[in-house]
Amino acid sequence: MLPFLIVVACDVVIELHDYQHAKMEVRAEALRNTQAYANLIADRLNTRFTELDVASAALQLPHTNPATPSPQMGEALRRYLLSRATPYTFNVLAADGETIQWSTAPSGTTQAKNAQTSAADFTPLDHSGNHLLGRIQYRDDTGDAVLPLLVHGDTDEHTGYFFASNYHLDRLLDIRELPANYRRGWSFTPVDTRDGAVLHARPDSSRRSTPTPAADIAIVVASPVDDYPFSVRLAVPESRVRQTYWRHAPSRWGIEALAFGLLLSAVAVTIRRREREQMLQLTRLTEFNSFMAQLNQCISQAKNEEALLQEICDMAIHYAHLKIAFIGRPDENGSIRMLAVAGPAGCMDGVSISVHPDVPEGCGNVGRVWRSGQPIFNASFKNGEHTAPWREWAIRQGVCSNAVLPIHRDGQIWAVLSVYHEQVDVFDDQLQVLLKEIATDISSGLEQLYNRRLQTALLDNSVVGILLVKDRIIQMTNTRVAQMLGLTPDSLVNQSAEMLYADREEFERVGAIYEQLRTRSEVRVAGVRLSRPDGRVMIADFSGVQLSDINGNVSVWTIEDVTSRDVAQRLYHALVNTADAVLQASSDTEMCARACSDLVHDTLFHAVWIGRMEPGYRLNVIARAGEGTDGMDALDLRAMDEVPVPLVAARAWKTEALAYSNDELGEQAQAPWFDFVRRNQWRAVLSTPIWRGGSTWMVITFVSPQPHIFDAQSIALCQRVAHLLGHALDTLDAKQRVEKLQVEESQRARHDPLTGLPNRLALEEYMPLALARARRQGTAVGVSMLDLDDFKLVNDSYGHEAGDVLLQELARRMRAGLRQTDYIARLGGDEFVVIIDDLDPLVPVAQATTVLDQLHVAVESPFQVTPESRAVVGMTLGLALYPLDGEDPDTLLRRADAAMYQSKVTKATRKTWWCLASATVARPPTDNAPETIAFDAYGPEAAELLTRARSFLARIRHDFMERFDDLIGETPDGKRILSVFTAEELAHLKEQQLKHLGFLLAPETTRQDIVAIAGRIGTVHALSGLTPTLLSESYSIYRRLLIDRLDKAMLRASEQYHILLTTEIRIQDDKGAQLQAGQVVEQTYFSLLSENLPVTDRSLTDATAQEMEDFGQLPGIQAAMLFRASASGQLVVTGTGGPQAQKLGNAMLPVLAQPITEPDPSFNQSVTGIAWRSRQRQHCASYVTDPRVVVWRDVMKHLGIVSSLSIPIRGNDGQVMAVLTVYGAYPNQFESLLMQQFASGLQQRWEQIWQRYPSPLPAATITEPRPR
Questions:
Q1: How far is CA 930 from CA 503, 691, 878, 926, 1164, in A?
Q2: Are 316 and 325 in contact (CB under 8 A)?
Q3: Which residue intervals define the domain GGDEF in the entry (predicted)?
Q4: How far apart are CA 1258 and CA 1014, in angstroms?
Q5: Topology classification of domain 570-702+714-741
Q6: Which of 508, 614, 515, 509 has its CA nearest to residue 555?
Q7: Averaged over 1232-1257, what is the pLDDT?
Q8: Percent of the chain scoring above 90 in pLDDT
């Protein structure tokens, strides 16, 4: 519709333009015709004046009198005038211009006088002063209009004469001499320009003519008559313009029609192009749909995973017409290994793809998909940094766009499918949906293939024969059936089931059961006689299950030997059901309940229960299912002395070993619960322990109504079920412990241990969210930095324990005083941050004032710091407002901190206990201080200030270091860390701290210098057990000492403020970089625990070697060694890792060569030996100060080893199977709570690894030596 309207509008504009053009054409034609007519009139007048000039010249010959020409002259003049095309008269007038002295007219004077006027009525012409033109006169006799003409005839001999002639207007205005096309259809109007009168041939001609109405006049043109006071006007009617317009319309419309046709053709071409594009898109969708259909068909028929993956890639090229397709997954190094590739030969040769984000090859689409698990569609390789490593390869291969999709297995990403197309931006929304469906189908197909292979493996390894029968034609069979019948599986498929039976009667007997099978869906047929090729008859029991199939009657039959009628099938179901139970359960209660319920479903057992013997040997059942189990609560099941044969479950619990009875009715005949056992047909009972965490947790009891059911096969299955449950419970426990550790660690990492308030890490996570929320909602946020006044006095007066009590009570009061939407965090010491959320952006200060007034209530009453003492403290707070004072957390905290310290500096003169950050910009600390707009702590002003205050700051640093032991050692963390330092080491530590503080406040230090050095120091501090709390506390102590010294210094208020501000900014940068480095160390250590356990298809040696190699690469680890006792009692190193492991192993060779069953003093004095004997984790904070390891001191010092940790690895029986010892480069490396949690998780991981493999060597039993 829009193109049509555009065309119509264009046509209207063109027609209007053409109409104007026609109008201009008519105007030009009218001008041409009027000019021609004016020229015709001028020529006629010029001719008449020329004739008069000739006549006057003849009459004015010498010696002649013009008034009385000779007869000959008069006759000659008459003949001359008569020879003109239009004869006229000629008069000679006297000097008065009125008296006719001579005339060529027959009646001379009278005729002439009627036509003449006074000479004063004539107008001389511009081009000739002798030519005069009179006004229009009308003859009395005829009424004709004439135009009088005069020629002044003055000469030297004759003066005062005029030669006159009248020009008839009908002749002068005659238009017949104009060309026909000039006069046809035109109506000219001559006008005398002297008076504007219209020239008419007769007086009444103006009345006879019908003027054109003014409304119908389109154009009016006028052309002057050259050299004469006349003009010719022409009024062109609108009809004339329309006539011209319509005359040109056919040709114009033809052109417009042609243009319109071309436009329609262009539209048609565009539509056809769009249709072709849609057709191309539809074709592409059809191709991809065909690819997906072929893919699903291929998946349904696939038997081999590798062949399926290659077939998928080939079909992507063949059906979807993609250029390249591959499926790959990362190897152990993180490089993509191609599982299948399709495309041009060698298309992927030399292509490097990784999943590591820290290398360019890992930042591409494949690596990003592997890490995120989400598909990525790349429109072009030309743009984007992530495609740069493969841009040249894409050009060589002629590919432009790319799609990468994840392939999942077991809920986790397993591989990636990457496809490439020759066109740019080819993967539109519809293709993206199809590709996602294809990736989902591939994932499902791999699962189906795995399930089919698993099903086939289970069927082929089943101890029972299985048949799939449709309309009594054998469709599928397993190997067991063929073995039973002495046939091959292929000889049975697609054959009539009649060939199985010994005779026709037996075939019809089983056939009669099909009616019951259709109604009941499941039947059992006992004692069926089957024939074998050797002529023997085999007796078997059939179990049939009806399947729903619209194409026929499909049934599955299980064939069993009579001697093992239900055993094989039901044991199989028990194992599968147990596997389902442990896989689907999320808790131990659910797992036990599911296991019991599934184990009585179509298995050997009609009752299963799980319980334990409580004190007093009373049986406590926690899960049960099957016949009779609902009545167990009413029984007093105990291990009674008067019962000849104890309960099977009691025997299993007491001995921690399997116990069973194939004749439970006979054995329990004297028991109080015999009637219960007999009523429920508990003929055979087996109980076996469920081990959990290396000890007996529960016993699982299997009950069967058939006696003597527990043979070697069924006993093995029951043990397998118990082992499977125990392993699943251990796995569940390990998972829950790791999750609990992660939750606890996350809680500890984000909360201050003293006050329970969020800490800096939690604040750093909360602030961006709060600011983002305020940005969305259009609200303001107040960011406050709070510091207590006189808190140091409390510590000095009552001790740090009293200070801790005050901080705890203060935190409680502040939480109670704040709104639920507000947030408070402790940075360390007596520094807090308060986030005031949801402020009105129009009046944020007023609302914040209300909140702060309520907050100040927390210090308005004294604190009971000891039973006998109460303390009073004040508050100083700086408030920055978002977005007025900044839009990011760092800026807001800095400005709030600056406002707080400015308020502290002016504490003696301030009016309020808090200061607004915007006020610090508007007003300097003192009236004569310079205005502070944006102070740069690393700029020239700060450098100049630090240079002048260098000696002052140096004294403060020395004072701080002199009090370092007292200040830091009072905290629990400080005591723990400093306790392992010798006097020399402590002096060295103070010296290093003194240098670092000097470096922080050196004028030439830049922020980049601080961040770089703080990163290395932060790593050392994290490995040395220095907690973020202690780091913040130490800086807070230094800051308070600085404030105290500044109060007494002879410095201007602005200088004090800027020194505080510079110190705070640089300390915060240093502390932030150290904390970030510490978090990296923490994440590196704990990421090792989250790695998948080694696969069981590798040997224990290979598994432990990889684990030790990974562990040895952790920061701060000098060596890691895995010790194991051989059967002969010698210590064996079965795995090592770390840069100093080889040298340490060589140093230990003398000890390792000695048997350890008889304790050796050197071995006893090692952390490894102590851990082995105590079966508990052992650690050495410092080889320099720990007296237990004095014999190893020199060796460790030579190797740069300062601390160590030994972790015993225990088996299911609680015996130590091995000891993992790690050696650190820093003191206290394994002493912190965080490292203790890591050690606990590491111990659990190694014990799980050890339990996954059979023990390669018997462990020597080593006990703690008896004290003498």
A1: 116, 76, 20, 8, 70
A2: yes
A3: 779-919
A4: 49
A5: Beta-Lactamase (3.30.450)
A6: 515
A7: 79
A8: 14
Which CA distances in Å does 1010 have to 892, 961, 1001, 1013, 1065?
21, 20, 10, 5, 11
Domain 754-923 listed as CATH 3.30.70.270: yes
CA distance 495 to 499: 8
Residue 922 is predicted with a pLDDT of: 38
Please say whether the beta carbons of 100 and 108 come within 8 A.
yes
State the pLDDT at residue 1268. 33
Q: Give one word for 558, left, alpha or beta, with left for phi > 0 and alpha for psi -120 to 50.
A: beta
Q: What is the DSSP string of 1113-1178?
A: TSTTEEEEEEEEE-TTSBEEEEEEESTTHHHHHHHHHHHHTSBSSS--HHHHTSHHHHHHHH-S-E
- 1013, 1071 Cβ separation under 8 angstroms: no
Which CATH architecture describes the domain 302-455? 2-Layer Sandwich (3.30)
Confidence of residue 863 (pLDDT cuts 50, 70, 90): very high
Mean pLDDT of the chain: 80
Q: Which class is 925-1084 in CATH?
A: mainly alpha
Tell me how far apart the alpha carbons of residues 1268 and 1264 are, in angstroms, rounded to a whole number: 12
User: In 10 A of CB 141, how many CB atoms?
Assistant: 7
In the chain, the percentage of residues whose pLDDT exceeds 70 is 85
Query: Quick one: 479 exposed, middle or buried, by C-beta within 10 A (0-12, 13-18, 19+)?
Result: middle
pLDDT in tens, 1027-1060: 777 777 777 778 777 877 776 676 776 777 788 8
CATH of domain 1098-1251: 3.30.450.40
Nearest to 987 by CA among 996, 998, 978: 978
Q: Any bridge partners for residue 542, and if so which?
A: 525, 559
Average pLDDT for 58-66:
68
Q: Six-digit token pair at 748?
A: 């500890």
Closest CA to 499 of 527, 477, 523: 477
Higher pLDDT, 300 or 856: 856
Residue 188 has pLDDT above 50, yes or no: yes
The reply to whether domains 463-565 and 1098-1251 share a CATH topology is yes
pLDDT digits (tens, 9 = 90+) for 732-770: 887 887 777 777 777 777 888 899 999 988 998 999 999
For the residues of 83-110, what is the DSSP string, one character each? TSSS----EEE-TTSSSEEEESSTTHHH
CB contact at 8 A, 1107 and 1129: no
Q: Which letter, b or e, does each residue of 857-889 get, where b requires 16 or more Cβ atoms within 10 Å of its Cβ? A: ebbeeebebeeeeebebebbbbbbbbebbbeeb
DSSP state letters, 639-666: --TTSSS--HHHHHHHHTS-EEES-HHH
- Split at pLDDT 50, 70, 90, the class of 932 is very low
Other C-beta atoms closer than 10 Å to the C-beta of 450 total 13
Q: Which residue has the tokens 């912190």?
A: 1232
Assess contact for 835 and 764: CB atoms under 8 A: no
pLDDT tens figures, 822-833: 999 998 888 999
> Which residues, in sequence order, are bridge partners of residue 1259?
none
Does domain 463-565 fall under CATH 3.30.420.10? My reply is no
Give the CATH number of domain 2-236: 3.30.450.20
Q: Is the peptide bond before 883 cis (omega within 30 degrees of 0)?
A: yes
- Structure tokens belonging to residue 341: 């590739």
Using an 8 Å Cβ cutoff, are 94 and 101 in contact? yes
Asked whether the CA dihedral 390, 395, 398, 403 is positive or negative, the reply is positive
Overall average pLDDT of the 171-193 stretch = 81
Is residue 1143 predicted with pLDDT exceeding 80? Answer: yes
Which H/E stretch holds residue 526?
strand 522-531
Q: How far apart are CA 132 and CA 125, in angstroms?
A: 6
pLDDT band at 834 (very low <50, low <70, confident <90, very high): very high
pLDDT interval class at 114 (50, 70, 90): very low
